[in-house]
Amino acid sequence: MEQKLRREAKALLEQGQVDYIVGFEPGSLKFTTTPLITRDKEEVDRLVINPFIVNNLANFLTELKGRVGIIAKGCDSRSIVSLIQDNKVAREDVVILGIPCPGIIDLSKVEELIGKDRDELEAISREGDKVVITADGKTSEFSITEVLFDNCLGCELPTPQEYDILLGEPTLPVTDRSASQAKIEQLKGMPPQPRWEFWSNELSRCIRCYACRNVCPACFCQRCFVEETEPQWLMPVPRWQDNLMFQVIRNIHVAGRCTDCGECERACPVNIPLRSLTKEMYDIVGELFHFKAGMDKDTAPLMTHYEQEEAEDFIR
Ligand code: SF4
Ligand code: SF4
Ligand code: SF4
Questions:
Q1: Given strand 138-143, what is the order of strands in its sheet?
Q2: Are residue 32 and residue 131 in the same domain, yes or no?
Q3: Burial 220-254 (b: 16+ CB within 10 A, else e)
């Protein structure tokens, strides 16, 4: 898949079909990748596909001017389609190099299982439904369900819905999504008071760095409500009450655009379980409106049109 990607990316640049290629290259730390944005056909040999290509690159599309060849996993392709639906990106300006995605490894889960920091690990490799980890010259095997990110454990559409070039054979969706919902179900099972205390404690740790907003392809407003001063929706000091307001309003803004890519939770430097909010909103949108983000570039985005049969249940 990696060789095919490099060939296709080089051809797209050589033939002038795109101005940029956006993909992944090895990161400076072990078991990481970092986005590569290049116009240079020689640099495409740095492109990689591995179980650590974590970022949702769709976020770059609203920044780059010109035609872009972009590497997209299943969830990323839906973010791209969602941006097309919102007229933030023109379909003809994007060449989607689709990756049927077997899931991304969550290094914090690996560290917990092995009891070592990621720097102390020698190798991590994926072999079918197993992940093989080498540390201190010894290998250990784990099921992928123990080490993938929670959103990948519940992935409905790992193969891109929209693409120009598919780089491998389509991958089947996960059938048992219970592991991905465990944290959310636990929270939903709590009585209101402890659940309120849980979120006030979690959000009191928020430093309002806005990483969750900045990595999110669905958060594309040029001027975010948090920066408004007339009216001032939030106090700049990260009090937990204002942090809660920030997350509540952000979740409403991304409703119908969130593809459960998991980037906001992953980017949070203080590990607030943000997916428990975004995935719940994703499910509510599905239940109330029978809508999933980024499925069809030719349909109107959620809440930009009115369906008569929606109104009763929603308004009541
Ligand atoms: S959510 Fe699906 S498509 Fe996205 S990274 Fe995880 S497994 Fe891949
Ligand atoms: S990434 Fe985490 S700490 Fe930063 S603003 Fe978002 S919730 Fe707060
Ligand atoms: S809200 Fe989070 S999970 Fe949803 S699209 Fe944005 S970054 Fe991805």
A1: 123-127, 130-135, 138-143
A2: no
A3: beeebebeeeeeeebeeebeeebbbbbbeebbebb
Select from 200, 208, 235, 222 the least CA-distant residue to 86: 222
Give the model confidence (pLDDT) of 248-303 as tens digits: 999 999 999 999 999 999 999 999 999 999 999 999 999 988 899 999 999 888 87
Q: Whose CA is nearest to atom 6 of ligand 3?
A: 216
Checking if the pLDDT of 316 tops 60, the result is no
The number of the ligand nearest the C-alpha atom of 157 reads 1
Residue closest via CA to ligand 2's atom 6 equals: 212
The last residue of one of the domains, among 147, 165, 199, is: 147
| Alpha carbon of 270 to ligand 3 centroid (Å) | 17
The answer to whether the CB of 146 falls within 8 A of the CB of 138 is no
Which two three-digit tokens encode residue 57?
């690159």
Q: Of the ligands numbered here, which is closest to the C-alpha atom of 55?
A: 1
CA dist 68 to 19, 27, 74, 84, Å?
A: 6, 22, 18, 14
User: What does the block give as tokens for 203?
Assistant: 């959000």
Residue 171 lies in a domain: yes
Nearest atom, ligand 3, residue 262 CA = 3
Protein residue with its CA nearest to atom 8 in ligand 2: 206
Domain coverage including residue 119 = 107-147
Q: What pTM value is reported for the model?
A: 0.92
Q: 67 with 127, same domain?
A: no
Q: Is residue 310 part of a domain?
A: no
Residue 161 in any domain: the answer is yes
Give yes or no: residues 111 and 143 share one domain: yes
Pocket test for ligand 3, best of 77, 252, 278 (most atoms within 8 A of CB): 278
Task: Say which residue the tokens 């077997």 belong to.
Answer: 102
